[in-house]
Amino acid sequence: MAASTEAPNASEYIVHHLTHLTNKAQKSVIDLTVVNFDTLFWSVLMGAIGCFVMWRVARAATAGVPGRFQALVELLVEFVNDQSKNIVNNEESRKFVAPLAMTVFVWVALMNSLDFLPVDLPAMILGVTGLDHVIHAHRIVPTADLNGTIGMSLGVLVLMLYYNIKIKHLGGFVHELFCAPFGSHPLLWPFNLLLNLIEFAAKSVSLGMRLFGNMYAGELIFMLIALLGATATWWGFGMHMVVGTIWAIFHILIVLLQAFIFMMLTLVYIGQAHEGH
């Protein structure tokens, strides 16, 4: 936060921490020209870190007794492969889908894990480096930004459409859009098409909204806990430490669970694209 003569109140503190570093100060409800630079930066950084770690593990893998981290990664890979086999019934598709599911889990888990960093850490770093006069807002959790999660869900939507066309061919996919689930009578075509379009839209929107809602709520609770420590009382500081520790431990489950759910729904939606009505 930029230097100020007065300390912000609770409302100003929360609003500041929920403000993105963006290319537009004023924007409409739907503005496709707005770019949240902090979301892009941390998303790409966590993706690069995830790829680097997996690459190092693969490079250092041994045929003998694996180390603890290698064993953990091997268990995770085996688990994801098993889930892929149970959901996606096409062996050729699984060559891409299984690594994709692994990538999604690791990437989302790393982005979610940024929520464990102290909420005021970015502002402190910007203040020490003197960049707070240039960067007046910064959010560190990409999955607490609806733009980021909807962007990922749109990627899953593209894969759903791709595999629908690949497996059923264009004619079969179009036929399914117009003739399922109510039947192939021409009078039913508009209703079938509308229902199928709603289904695709609902899958994409719910996939992104679910991850965003959970991480946004978690981020907001961390801010409220941080405000307890700003009361300048022993009671506030004590509650800050106790409640903060409890919520951080509980949030570990949320971080991993949301990454798991996003991965599983990605597999389910792609698996459904291999099936006909």
Textual characterization of the structure:
By secondary structure, the chain is mainly α. It has one domain (10-273). The protein is 71% helix and 0% strand. The chain has 8 helices and no strands. The N and C termini lie far apart (54 Å).
**Sheet having the most strands:** none
Principal-axes shape call: globular
Radius of gyration, CA atoms, in whole angstroms: 23 Å
Question: Please, how many helices?
Answer: 8
Distance between the termini: 54 Å
Unreliable spans are 1-5
Structural class: mainly alpha
Oligomerization = single chain
Mean pLDDT: 87
At a glance:
This protein has helices at residues 10-17, 37-60, 68-87, 91-113, 121-129, 146-179, 189-228, 234-273.
Features of this protein?
single chain; 277 residues; mainly alpha
SSE topology sketch:
Blueprint: H1 10-17, H2 37-60, H3 68-87, H4 91-113, H5 121-129, H6 146-179, H7 189-228, H8 234-273
